[in-house]
Input
Amino acid sequence: MVVSVVLLWVCFCMLLFLIRTRRPKHFPPGPQTIPIFGNLHQLNLVNPVNDLQKLSDRYGKVFSFYFGGRPAVIITGMEAMREALLTKALDFAGRPGGVLLSHLTQGKGIIMADYGPSWKEHRRFALITMRNFGLGKQSMEERILGEVSYICAHLEKVAGQTIDPQTLFHNASCDIICSIMFGSRYEYDHEFFQAMIKMMADNSKIANGPWGMIYDTMPLLRNLPLPFQSALRDYHTVKMHVLDIVNEHRATRTPNEPRDLIDGYLDEVDKRGQDPAPFDDSQMLTMLLDLLFAGTDTTSNTIRAAVLYFMAYPDIQERCQQEIDMVLEGRDQLCFEDRHSMPYTQAVIHETQRAASTLPLSVFHCTTKDTELTGYQIPKGTLVIQNLSSVLHEETQWKFPHSFNPNNFLNEQGEFEKPPAFMPFSIGPRTCLGEGLARMELFLILVTLLRRFQFIWPEDAGEPDFTPVFGVTQAPKPYKMVVKPRTITAN
Output
């Protein structure tokens, strides 16, 4: 009797699953599902990007995929991406609930906040405040170049040695965003600073990696002591540290004389009087952590990728250095405007962003209303995944889609030219908030380093491995390098 009841219950659950995962009429096509897993078994969870491309080759540029019982729509290629994120931008501007990242942030802040008034106000506040503190101005250039001096000082000490740069560039990127938010920077050997950087790198791997997908797909497992618990715990630890900084600012600030972004936020709360909503402490803390994560991991991993390419292609490194020496002849310091006189170096930096594909699946979206995409009907609340990597390597959009080649960004006259398929920060209203800061950092940091140093692949290190470590932000595999100071010359 008991066995019969159990079998009946199992059959009922499987029937219910099959009904739930039956694709609605005019929904994008996709692979057949299986109970519990949906289509998850068809992905290499270590890095699913290649598998998603194979599914797109079979089912089209817009196809459906089930994470357990939850349907998702995968967008591949530039045309479908532009239709969703530009032509129908507001229809696809939502953020999904019920995933690890939304639980970490509780749907607050900027990155994982759903489309609506609170998100709009906080994004606008962050953009205006960052501009007030120098973004796009000479003061921000000085802030970045000041931070680069710490990297250069370290590299001079270890010149000629084989070193591991795993966190070196994270240190600089994190300190730049910390100086904007907190009004101060950390010493690179600060214990909590290093723990915070490790947390961001680890959580990036977990959130879009196998354990993150298991968390998103199988809610019954979320309370078990599995690796995603460390992501929740570490995020809370950093959040409490930032709260201590906020409380210190409260005690020392002078109203309407903001020293940094925190003071600016507290001024905004005061200005709103008795009802400051949606501005409050929980929103502020999540926004600060959003900016900390977005301002650290993406930029630093792109710089690490660039250095790897410099070592793998020494002829490209040398040509950049010749151009830099010629443009900066007789000057102690560069400026962001110099990029217009360095087309080849600009092309190399952009090619690094394209080839490295640092945000391969961007941040997941969801639909805010019933809508259509390339003729398919997509209901409100559907999880939407942008395969940005597919656009950055799309064969019809690039001269050399599958190899590292700066000519992807140079026209026949050798002038820098940015193709429309270049969208490493996504596009539309939810494009990366820190894009302007990231572009400035990449140029100023990489050009300064190329001017001062030569990067050499160690003789005993084998061949460079460009296989990325997948995550919310994709990173190069750990590698070693040798740094040699340059004698600056001009042609």
In short: Residues 2-19 have pLDDT under 50 and may be disordered. The CA atoms of residues 196 and 238 lie 7 Å apart.
